[in-house]
Every structure is written in structure tokens, then in C-alpha cells.
Amino acid sequence: MVKNLLLFLSLLILFFLSGIAQAQNISAPKYSNEFLNIGVGARALGMGGVQSAIVRDATAGFWNPAGLVGLPKRHNAVYMHSELFAGIIKNDYGSYATNLDSTSALAFSVIRVGVDDIADTRRLQNEYGAIQYDSIEFFSVADYAFLASYARQSNLIPGLTLGANAKIIYRNVGKFANAWGFGIDAGAQLRRGNWQFGLVAKDITTTFTAWKLNPDELESTYLQEEESFNANSIEVTLPRLILGVGRSFQFAKRFSALVATDLEITTDGKRNTLLSTGVVSVDPKVGLEIGYANAVFLRGGFNNVQQIEDLNGKSSWKVQPNFGIGVATNGLQLDLALSKVSDNSQASSVIVSLAYSFD
User: Fold this and answer.
1) Which superkingdom (predicted)?
2) What is the pTM of this model?
3) Which partner for 187 in 28, 36, 64, 327 could form a disulfide, CB atoms 3.0-4.6 Å apart?
């Protein structure tokens, strides 16, 4: 049993180390496909995105596919909507998960992050200098991800579940450009009494996104500065590793608590995180959930530890606080969260999630 677990962990680490090697040899941009790291689900975001070890619902298809085996009932559906920057960016997510049998589960998820109704004013003025408002066109910039997830309980190690994602990425910039990509995630969860452990390797084989620009729409703009431009390009998303641990507590029969933490390790170079090098960066997260009678929940979390420099050149460490509440009854669960809390209210994000579980 131990050999099989070590083999699985060794494979994940091998892929992760290969990603580090590629980070040193490939000119990969930071924050590639970063829309996939905003997060989904009001419960998760209210806890600062700490989910790798504790997720047990349909959102596991995003956070850690191994958690799908812990679905509360046979079927589970989740929908989430949030808005960023005073409603400019819309973030929508939907997922459906089902238990195939007592030891395996399957899920399908879709994510859309986009800005709609952007005005294209390039033709606002005609050749005679007159303004023609009817020439204004509107377009959207949107990123999509489609995930198919599978999880299975290990027959060799009690409490161990393994899972994987296959994801298709589609990114669209109106009629100017679009891109297709494909990637794979893998994860594991181990439950030992009140302790829960999680391991997730995202973009484990690197994710390649192929961009195609529309020369008819862009060439005249580029030719103002240079003779030609490349209409096709490849964007590479390097692997990231997430290690998590959580522990649940029970108080006075009706009260419960869940404390968890994640360490997110990226391989695309130095980021503004608590721990960082020229090759990898480590971003810690902490989350807490207090429940009453499995019906009412209060949540909080801290993440995004960064060093911020003010206008006087003085640097200080700051963290991002997150808060959330939830109510559940008869398989229906409503969760609210306030994320990205800051002095600038327009930068904060309100997340609403609705989930339903049934047999």
C-alpha cells in the first residue's frame, strides 16, 4: 500500500520538477490563463480559497478532483456568479457531479470570465472627419474553461482518493483573436479521522494555448509601427502544486469547526508572495469554517500575502481578508462571500453560490 502511494506521489513530483525545468528553459509568461486561479464557489472564496484537502462537493472538479468521492448525495449541482471591479468583469461557474458507484464519481464544469459590451470606436470618424455614432460596434472579451473530472477511491489505502481533470480552454477577444488550449490536473486526498490532507498538481504536463490573431482587423494597426506581425502564437502555462491540510472539530453536539491551510507553489518565476525565488514562489492560505447543526455556517480566510510599497517608498506586508456565510436545508445550500476586501470598495467582490444535492 505504501509503495503505491509513494509511486503516485513520485509521479506528481516528477511532473512538477519537469515543470520547474521547463520554467527555466521556456519563455513562459507569468499569470498565463490566470482566470482559472480566481476561484469558484462562495464557500471556498469565503475561506480564502483553501480547499485542496477539504472540498467535498461538485466544486471539487475545480479545486481537487479527488474530493468528488465525498459528495453528500448521489447528485450535486452548483452555480456561482460574482462580479469584479464594480461589475465590469462577470465571473460565472456551473458544475454537475454524480457518484458512479460507492467508490467513484464524475463531474462536468464550465467557467466563464468576461467583459461584455466593449465599444469599438475605430470607425467613429469617417474619411471626412464627421462623427458617426452608428458605426460603433460592441464586442466581448471572455475566457472559458470546460472541465471533465473523474475520481476514485483507492482499493489499497483506506481513506485515499485519487482524481484527475481534463480541461479545454477557449479564449476570445471579439473578432480580433481567439485561442484554444488543453491541460490536465491531478489530485489526491487522504482522510485520517478528523484530519484531512490534499495534494493537487495543476497543469501537470504544462498547458499550451494556441492563439490566432485576425489579420484583417489588426494588421492596419500593427503596420503603423512595424512591417508585419505574427498571427499565431503559443502561450504556455507552467505547473503549480498545492499542498493542503485540514482538521475538523465538534463542540457541544451542534457546533463544529473546520480549520485548513494551503500552500500554493508556482513555477513561473518570482512572484510577489511570502516566499519566492527566481524559480518558484509559495503563497500560503488559511481558512476557517464554523457550523451550527450543519445548517448555518460562518467562514473566514486570509490569502494573497504581498509586500506593498506606498507612495513614500515604504514597504509593508499585507494580506487579503475574506468572509462568508452559508445556510443549508433539505439538500439546498446558499452561500455568500465577500472576497478581495480592501480599502477600495470597487475592488471587492461579492460571490453568490447556489447548490442542490439529491439522490
Assistant:
1) Bacteria
2) 0.86
3) 64
